[in-house]
Design goal:
Distance between the termini: 29 Å
CATH architecture of one domain: Up-down Bundle
CATH class of one domain: Mainly Alpha
Largest sheet: 3 strands, antiparallel
Protein name: Flagellar hook-associated protein 3 FlgL
Subcellular location: Bacterial flagellum
CATH superfamily of one domain: f41 fragment of flagellin, N-terminal domain
InterPro entries: Flagell_FlgL (IPR013384), Flagellin (IPR001492), Flagellin_C (IPR046358), Flagellin_N (IPR001029)
GO biological process, one term: bacterial-type flagellum-dependent cell motility
Strand content: 5-15%
Radius of gyration: 39 Å
Helix content: 55-70%
Number of strands: 11
Shape: rod-shaped
Family: Belongs to the bacterial flagellin family.
Length: 353
């Protein structure tokens, strides 16, 4: 096959263009610090890089979820500690009420302080964090509890509705006066049927007991809240149903009854101890969840570091290696120019030499 000068020139020009394109690619990598700039550079690495970016963004959101949950649990633990202290003070007052030397005036003073502690308990159980009520379940944005005075001057802990009404421990609507006090019938708050719709507050009552959950890792969720119903409605160590809401009402009723002292220092005292044990059990569960979230936070941080490291190995260049490749290509390019300068078509001057 005859090789012409034109063929040689074309081959050299093509090779020089290839060298220039390689140098341009290396220059782009050196200026950007990345191996790839568009999908056509390396489709496999681009797909891998996109997946890693998605995993890192999801991991950062998991980290935010974990931080918010830790803060929520810290707030819950503080409120439960205040609840324990309040119940402990009520128990101390109940023991004092059993003193045989105390008369009506002393027991009335004890009843007044217990009424204040009941109001304090209602305030604690309406603890708010980040715009949501900690013990409100999925009800969240409206307070779950209220401490309301009745027509006899006693305070009651009741469930609060969004429209300002009150529910008892069974979710039934309580009757109230025009001043907002609870009507009493037979020593107990009087129950009425909601007008027009008997199940009007059923859903809202159920929301108070609903659990909140958050995702802390791919496919891993945790229920992190404590509801007010967990505190007020529970089973003791023998499996017997207990209700703190009814117990507090019974305590204040017995304090105003001269014949109720024996029940106050007997059955009621045992029941308030069981209620305190229940709160302590809930606190231990909250503490276990706090430990789990701390461990999840450390794992999330480590996982985020690993994903970032893998992404760097996928996307980022080795600057030393690329500098050497670029210097090599510069040498090749200069050599190509020098070689191509000799591949010229003969001119008339060549024949006159």
């Amino acid at each position: 096959m005859r090789v012409t000068n034109s063929m040689l020139s074309s081959n050299f020009l093509r090779d020089m263009r290839n060298n220039l394109e390689t140098m341009q690619t290396l220059e782009n990598q050196l200026t950007s610090g990345k191996e790839i700039r568009r999908p056509s550079d390396n489709p496999f690495k681009v797909a891998r890089s996109m997946q890693l970016h998605g995993d890192i963004l999801a991991n950062k959101q998991y980290n935010e979820n974990i931080k918010d949950t830790i803060n929520w649990l810290d707030t819950t633990d503080t409120a439960l500690n205040q609840t324990t202290n309040t119940l402990q003070r009520i128990r101390e007052l109940m023991v004092s009420a059993g003193n045989g030397g105390y008369g009506t005036d002393e027991r009335k003073a004890i009843c007044d302080e217990i009424n204040e502690k009941i109001g304090e308990l209602g305030q604690v159980l309406n603890t708010n964090f980040d715009g949501k009520y900690v013990f409100g379940g999925t009800k969240g944005t409206s307070k779950p509890m209220a401490a309301v005075e009745d027509t006899d001057g006693r305070n009651h802990i009741v469930y609060a509705t969004k429209d300002g009404n009150y529910l008892n421990s069974e979710g039934k609507l309580l009757k109230k006066t025009s001043e907002g006090k609870l009507e009493i019938s037979g020593g107990e708050p009087e129950v009425v049927e909601p007008p027009n719709d008997p199940d009007k507050y059923k859903e809202e009552y159920m929301h108070i007991s609903q659990d909140l959950a958050t995702e802390i890792s791919q496919g891993v969720t945790i229920e992190y809240n404590v509801t007010s119903r967990d505190i007020f409605e529970f089973k003791d160590s023998k499996g017997t149903n207990s209700n703190l809401m009814d117990l507090l009402n019974d305590i204040t009723k017995n304090l105003n009854d001269p014949d109720g002292v024996s029940k106050l220092t007997g059955e009621n005292l045992d029941d308030i101890t069981k209620a305190m044990d229940n709160v302590l059990k809930i606190r231990s569960e909250v503490g276990a969840k706090q430990n789990r979230m701390d461990a999840a936070k450390e794992q999330n941080t480590e996982e985020n570091f690993n994903l970032t490291d893998i992404l760097s190995k996928t996307e980022d260049i080795d600057f030393v290696e690329k500098q050497m490749e670029f210097a090599t290509m510069q040498t090749v390019y200069v050599a190509s120019l020098q070689t191509s300068a000799r591949v010229l078509q003969p001119s008339l001057m060549d024949y006159l030499r």
